[in-house]
Amino acid sequence: MAEIEFESLFNYAMRGQWREVLEAYEKNPQVLEAKITKAEDTLLHISVYVSQTCFVTTLLDNISQNMSRNILRLQNSKGNTPLHVAAELGNVDICNNIVKRDHTLISCRNLEGETPLFLAAVHGKRDAFFCLHGRQQNKDDDSLSRKNNGDTILHSTISSEYFGLALQIIGMYPKLVNAVNYDGLSPLHILARKPNCFRSCTRMELIDRIIYGLSMAGSIVEEDKEERCDISHNIQAHTKTFHHCPMNYGTCMTFLSLLKLTTTGKDTKATTSDEENNFSLKSEQKQAKKEKKHYRFPPNWESMIRLLILAMKALLIVFGVGATWVEKIQRKKEKHIQAKQVMNELIQRASLYKYDFIEPSPHGEDHSGGSDKAKIKSNTGNEAIEKRRTVSPILIAAKTGITEMVEKILDMYPVAIHDADTENKNVVLLAIENRQPHIYSLLNKRSLIKETAFRQVDKDGNSALHLAATYKKFRPWRVPGAAMQMQWEYKWYKLVKNSMPPNFYERYNKDGKTAKQVFIDTHAQLAKEGSKWLTKTSESCSVVAALVATVAFTTSTAIPGGPNQDTGIPLLQGKPAFKLFAVTSLVALCSSVTALVMFLSILTSRFQEKDFVVDLPRKLLLGLTTLFTSIASVLISFCAGHYFIVEDQLKYAVYPVYAATCLPVSFFALVQLPLYFDLTLAMFRKVPQRSYKVFFH
């Protein structure tokens, strides 16, 4: 093709001049085979990228069958055919149009080993996925659902957090539940590395928790609708003519659905179940799931629940909060529910503790499951089994803090408590090492686990108490500052120590250190940082406290209006403003002196590890409280004394001035409130709160 013609063809495609492209094709049919971008895309690739459905349809209808097969098999630099692109973008019309001309393109792989079916699942394009699945010749063949690194569509959808689609894939491809990639990871392993998808690892403020609880009904409705998703209907609808509707069709139907007072019930569920049977979703399993579910609200309350949620959003908009915030919390809860559903399905169907006890065959085959045979090409059976022994889902869940997964696995497979990683750390040791209070509390309630697993040591001879005493670089606790981190580190150490079995004895690790010695050594730098922060804070606050004490002493000795020369009694005695002045000046003096003493006692402290638990935080809390009290009292006493020297005509005018004088102090107090509340909560909490901003990598 001439360079000028190539340049024109590129410009036509970039500008969307598809009529000119058709004219160029009529003059020279070879233009369809030309690769016109650096990514080696053809005209058909580009037209699919920009969703030119009419152009693709017209073009394929006006060329021969052999030619259409040739251009549809052309791959770009990534190995993607036009069908790969259409599946990735979720364009069902183009997928149907291409597949009906050459259904073998469904099995075509790119350089990563991904089929169009795989790409549709990875990007969460549910409709395109069902379309391609329905066009497969052998729907029981799951070879198209893997890529070169061994990841399946179930691995990828869970990794991309498309849990609704993952649930349906589990029903359509049950063998994929036990499939492992080249790293020995199953879909359950992938899910265990996603703590943000579970409620136990999501930290929310009080108002967020309230909205989260109120959105329970809406989430149940969405969950029920997800469970009743009609798979066969999706496939049949997309293998036939795709119905086009106006873009605002969905919005209109949603609005009209709010006007309904009742919804369909059992008939819809029965029909859905019958159709799902056509796609190897067993009716017995579906019925068992329905019997297990206990909804808080009847199904026919869906419309009323939606109206309630809509009213709640409107109320929040009136108060300036915004509906997007509520929708965000609802989406978060729906993700939590769906992730838990996927987790339950994977644990119930997985053969977690069967293959560990089966030796590989002499020929290196892995007989742990039918879906694993001949799938792991770069690993022998011995290597695959060894990787699965070193990586256990319950260990990952204990490390990331997914309480739901740890509890479910232990309920179904009690033997999982004996799982250990390459460092010989079991569930208990990993939960303690990674500061997971919820996991530790769950394990601590089981007496059998407490008597066995709590006594295990790792390869370095470290017991549970040693790991509780070991401090690492990241700061897991949900408190600011090194001093408060040190406080909760010591509380965590004491919590683990006090919950050990009665006859547990402290032992030495391989380095010859006890847990107490490990705590002192590993927390030396943190204690140094905490003492430095406390020293600077106390120095700054003590200066302020000294100034307030000086002013308060001067103020308390001055009498507004002066005393009576004969009796020495203040002339203004008995007036409300004078009483207020007398009381507040005394409070300011006493509280400022108390604050000064507290901060000076912090400066003279020894800053031992145990001092950070109660002694130092209590002094700091008492010092801040009395400092705030003294500042407020000084201002009130000033306003009360100044009130007597203002003329009657100006008394009402000075009130705004008094209020403005108090604004800086009020702002300072508000800024310090988070620290004040953190100190207060830390004083009364026995179990530290973990921050889930630091996730497992």
From TrEMBL:
The chain crosses the membrane at residues 304-326, 541-560, 580-600, 620-645, 657-677. It is a peripheral membrane protein. It comes from the Eukaryota. GO terms for cellular component: plasma membrane. It holds the Pfam family PGG. It is found in: Cell membrane. Residues 532-644 form the PGG domain. The keyword Glycoprotein does not apply. Residues 362-375 have a biased composition (Basic and acidic residues). ANK repeats lie at residues 78-101. SMART domains: ANK. Keywords: ANK repeat, Membrane, Transmembrane, Transmembrane helix. Its main location: membrane. Residues 362-382 are annotated as: Disordered. InterPro entries: Ankyrin_rpt (IPR002110), Ankyrin_rpt-contain_sf (IPR036770), PGG_dom (IPR026961). PANTHER family: ANKYRIN REPEAT PROTEIN, CASKIN. This is Uncharacterized protein LOC101501840 isoform X1. The lineage of its organism: Eukaryota, Viridiplantae, Streptophyta, Embryophyta, Tracheophyta.
